[in-house]
Amino acid sequence: MVAAMNPCPCGNFGNPLKKCTCSDKMVTGYLNKISQPVLDRIDIQIEVQPVKYDDLYKRVKQESSAAIAERVQRARDIQAKRFKGTQIKSNSRITPDIIADVCAMSPDAEETLRGAFEKLGLSARAYDRILKVGRTCADLDGSEKIEKNHIFQAIGFRSLDRKYWNR
Ligand SMILES: [Zn+2]
Description:
Layout: H1 24-31, H2 36-40, H3 53-58, H4 65-82, H5 96-102, H6 107-120, H7 124-140, H8 148-156, H9 160-165
Helix pairs in contact: 6-8, 7-8
The chain binds zinc ion.
């Protein structure tokens, strides 16, 4: 599932370049259309900032789509090999009985996740999702173990609910 939404009725809440004309109550009411349990079940949540004219004009050189596709295919191949002979097709489908084996972390990564769990008050569900997304970040990196930076990335993909929903 891929979905997108505005942060408020006028669409400008959180936009550094434009002023949001909604009342606080309107913003809260708008965001509350998506409940926390629903939000919890979405693996990756990111905020897309408006494109600035200069960036469009200069066409900043970025990693090409072809190069990204190649990296994604490599990560897919790693997963196909990992789950060979099982019903599982991708990291998002990792079941609780194998999660500890499949999502092995370096000691650093483990400490980072433990710290985040306590500091951010993550739910058990969010914890598992971070681990699975962290597994994918590690696969994209060609790393056998989940390292600290992969946990940071995975946590970053879940920061929207704290920024907007739990203001
Ligand atoms: Zn607004």
